[in-house]
Amino acid sequence: MKKPKLDIYEVGRLAGVSKSTVSRVISDTGGSVSRKAKDAVNAAISELGYTRNTFAAGLRNSKSYLALLVVPDIANPFWSEIVRAVQDRLEPEGYSVVVGNTDWSEERELSYLRLFRTGRFDGLIINSVTDDIDLILEAGIPAVLVGERSELTQIDTVGTATYQAATLALQYLYDAGHRRIAVVTSETGSERFLSRRFTAYTDFMEAKGLAKDPDLVFTAHLSAEGGERLAGDILAVPGWKDRISAVLCGNDILAISLQNTLRARGVEPGRDISVIGMDDIPIAALTWPALTTIRKPRAEMGKKAAELLMKRIGDPSRTPEKHLYPGTLVIRDSVVEIRN
């Protein structure tokens, strides 16, 4: 059945707004439209059975109404929730979201950036696995970076306050009696170049007067496979039972895999060794033992990234913003209290 032609007079009458307001809502030609008016227009369009022709609107405004979202691991629920939050926020604005998964590969990320630079997209949201954002900035297209980059001020950024989050985890372990704490940083992604987690660890150990044992600093791929290898690395440390009582992991996927692999090798997490994760993905509460972790506000981060992108599209010359969300401690069963 052929869709009826959009009659802005009829839409305006039903929404209780002027035809110029309807025109601004459906074509994004500019001007200020309140959220209340926009919602009324969209509701009227839906009731009348019209569909907004995004392609035609794009031709009028030199927009594609496409946003590119690039994440390092779509299989990780942390990133899939970010994707969903971005989509939920951008779709009401008329945007479709194209998702790219790099699998932590710089080569794959570069291919997405080349695609981005063709101008087919109105904007980019990315968690970059490199420490070089020049290709993003040089493209001159609105972009938002997801993930903490404390040294960057020339691009909109949304992330977690990693230093605060890691310190919170370390303090909890310390208060539980742990002094022989290992830390795991990422062998992939931007953390290779500037690990806020490792900086927090070294600062914390120094502040507490604890000896820094280089054998207690591990690197791993933040994945299930990385957790399996990490378990082997920990058990390979000479006299590990007397040198490692707790492990701070880079994310929950790594921590859960570490727990499962250690248990398979006869070491009981939450009893023989304590494990704490980062992210608080849904499965963290369902594993055994249930994982103590640091919660990151994924939905809020995705929504804020989308909002910053829309603001950047609307005003490319505005001053970049940085929003870092604090982590919160979620106590479960994988950290055991030890007594001297």
Q: How does this model look, in words?
A:
The protein is α/β, with parallel strands linked by helices and 340 residues long. The chain folds into two domains: 124 residues, Response regulator (Rossmann fold, 3-Layer(aba) Sandwich), CATH 3.40.50; 134 residues, Rossmann fold (3-Layer(aba) Sandwich), CATH 3.40.50. It contains 13 helices and twelve strands. The chain has a six-stranded parallel β-sheet, sandwiched between helices. A six-stranded mixed β-sheet has the order 7-6-8-9-10-12, sandwiched between helices. Helix 12 links the parallel strand 8 and strand 9. Helix 1 packs across helix 2. About 2% of the residues have low confidence.
What letter string, H or E per element, gives the SSE order? HHHHEHEHEHEEHEHEHHEHEEHEE
Quaternary structure of the protein: single chain
Low-confidence runs of at least 5 consecutive residues: 54-60
Highest CATH level, the class of the largest domain? Alpha Beta
- Strand content bin: 15-25%
- CATH superfamily annotation of the largest domain: Response regulator
How many structural units, i.e. domains?
A: 2
Q: Largest beta sheet, briefly? A: 6 strands, parallel
Q: Would you summarize the structure shown here?
A:
With 340 residues, the chain is an alpha/beta fold. The chain has helices at 8-15, 19-27, 35-48, 54-61, 77-90, 106-116, 134-139, 162-175, 196-207, 224-235, 240-243, 252-264, 298-314; strands at 66-71, 96-101, 123-126, 143-146, 156-160, 181-186, 217-220, 246-248, 274-279, 292-295, 322-325, 328-330.
